[in-house]
Design goal:
Layout: H1 11-19, H2 33-43, H3 45-60, H4 62-71, H5 74-89, H6 93-117, E1 129-135, E2 139-145, H7 159-165, E3 170-175, E4 182-188, H8 216-223, E5 240-241, E6 247-249, E7 255-258, E8 265-268
Antiparallel strand pairs: 1-2, 2-4, 3-4, 5-6, 6-7, 7-8
């Protein structure tokens, strides 16, 4: 009798059949080599400028620099190197400028890589054009020009991915009010309000004192208003002697007169009128 055999599908066939259901097509822009060259130069312009400066200084001033170090003693050369290293470590305007420019370059490259990985592309395969990147007090701000077929809605719910790609703590996306094609992305790397002590001119000499070093008594003494001077209920004035041998003593509110002879008390009003009968 003939034997019937059943063939089993191989792993390659099963994987191929499973992968047929999900196919992603990515269209790359059809650009000529001059356009690609110009875009590459624009993208790496700051790195190319830095390399050109280093090469120029090395070729033109190499002999002068070498002769300067050879003519000086060893201790002076060591002192010069220590000063340069200290300038690079300490906080100064030059060092801050250099670090801000470096972070701007890193942000541009990381943001472009993130846009490609998130497929923020139009049907021609172009990503948003990065117009500029500037340094701020909290990080960097990047301006994007959305190409035809793109809008700020393509970046909805992408702030966490952008912050992670740029090595930042937070990213905020906002659209320009005048032009919908211009999108601003704020990359926050630091929080200026996260310091333990905040200098304020309103606190005077206690602005630099940590919170734990200030006692509760000092705080309460600072907040307690000045004590008011003690006041008496009646402000006595010099006594006057009236007719009949009566001594009258005036007060601020009510004025009383003590009778010396017949133990009678006379109460005078504010205008000096006798109001004893109405009391």
């Amino acid at each position: 009798m003939p034997k019937f055999t059943r063939t089993r599908p191989t792993r390659r066939a099963s994987r191929g059949s499973a992968a047929r259901g999900a196919v992603e097509t990515i269209i790359r822009p059809n650009q000529t080599w001059p356009v690609k060259l110009l875009l590459t130069i624009w993208r790496w312009r700051w790195e190319l400028i830095l390399i050109a400066i280093v090469v120029y200084i090395t070729v033109v001033y190499r002999t002068a620099i070498t002769g300067y170090f050879q003519s000086n003693p060893l201790w002076l050369n060591a002192l010069l190197i220590i000063v340069l290293c200290g300038w690079g470590v300490t906080d100064n305007p030059g060092r801050r400028f250099v670090l801000n420019r470096i972070w701007c370059l890193i942000t541009r490259h990381r943001l472009r890589a993130c846009l490609i990985e998130m497929r923020i592309l139009n049907y021609s395969g172009n990503i948003p054009f990065i117009l500029a990147c500037f340094s701020t007090k909290t990080g960097q701000v990047v301006w994007l020009w959305m190409r035809p077929g793109q809008s700020v809605e393509d970046l909805d719910n992408k702030s966490e991915s952008l912050a992670s790609a740029c090595w930042a703590s937070k990213a905020t996306i906002a659209r320009s009010k005048r032009n919908a094609a211009i999108v601003r992305i704020d990359i926050d790397r630091r929080d200026p309000l996260a310091k333990k002590t905040i200098d304020s001119p309103l606190l005077g000499d206690t602005s630099g004192v940590p919170e734990a070093a200030v006692a509760d008594d000092a705080v309460m003494a600072f907040l307690t208003p000045d004590s008011a001077p003690e006041s008496t209920t009646q402000d006595e004035r010099p006594a006057k002697t009236g007719a009949g041998g009566e001594t009258r003593t005036r007060t601020s509110k009510t004025k009383t007169t003590a009778a010396v002879n017949d133990s009678q008390t006379v109460i005078l009003g504010a205008n000096g009128e006798d109001v004893s009968d109405y009391v």
